[in-house]
Sequence to fold (381 residues):
Amino acid sequence: MGERLYRKNQPEKKKLLPHSYALSLKDKVVWGTWERSGKRVRDYNLYTGVLGTAYLLFKSYQVTRNEDDLKLCLEIVEACDVASRDSERVTFICGYAGVCALGAVAAKRFGDDQLRDHYLARFREIRLPSDLPYELLYGRAGYLWACLFLNKHIGSESVSSERMRSVVEEIFRAGRQLGNRGTCPLMYEWHGKRYWGAAHGLAGIMNVLMHMELEPDEIKDVKGTLSYMIQNRFPSGNYLSSEGSESDRLVHWCHGAPGVALTLVKAAQVFKTKEFVEAAMEAGEVVWNRGLLKRVGICHGISGNTYVFLSLYRLTGKPEYLYRAKAFASFLLDKSEKLISEGKMHRGDRPFSLFEGIGGMVYMFLDMNDPTQALFPGYEL
Ligand SMILES: [Zn+2]
Fold:
């Protein structure tokens, strides 16, 4: 293959063309999640379902400006809109807040104001149940992420600041109840465990909170919680998957150093302290030294860990991080198909999905087109 994922010597302003292999894989994802099933939605969500394909198509449209991708994105979101009518899940990644938020943003890009307003109206109807957890995939943090996505892409008051503020206060109230002022100021439980990672735990919740306007005492608690995690990580530098865990095994976005690294990059940008810059870089070392995972996806696979280096590159501008991202991406490009067919790599439980399958890998390949703008889908904003 003559093309490269990243062409080093191109003039900066020239629009780079995406890798043709990435675009053909994108078509394969559309086939595997949408066309093959006769365009019926079995699973609507962004994580394992067909909304992930719509998100990938939106990314592809952003890179190529091919309107067919945007139209197909909207067609899939419309089917998800119908399929999620009885859903009680209210987050971006696993719930119908993701359907409404992506629908509104894609409709706006398409110039269809009526459709945009339809999705915005449905989003504003979302009511959070009182027993809703706090983490990112199913909880309040995941609802807030959808609000942030809308406000970034549609306009700052698409979701009112009062609405978001009340959810932020609920998150602090609950976190302080389980937290401890002297050690870890904020703590949460999900299914009886006190998780640390991005998907279900502290890293994911702190990441969302750092995008909000916070009071000084709230900022202190977020910083204190992150410092507690840094001070109590494993001797290897990896992060616990949950409070008290002694198993230094998982190095994933969902559990372990990669998800925490992305959160620490955000902390470094928001708080501008050396502590968080260094901790982010140290978490990146863990990801590099532990090496390649056996899966391709972004949740617990090589593509997700690639974003750690892209994020550190954005933070520090150090070329070694871009080199590392390219090394991981090139490995996937050259080897993943063969290793999966030989059974040496796992194709993921939902092999075409955005978070577990090749959907996320293709998303990352498209992001490699302009590494300075790469953002972990559903996590970095
Ligand atoms: Zn995972």
User: Anything to note?
Assistant: The pocket of zinc ion is lined by residues 252, 254, 299-300 (CB under 6 Å).
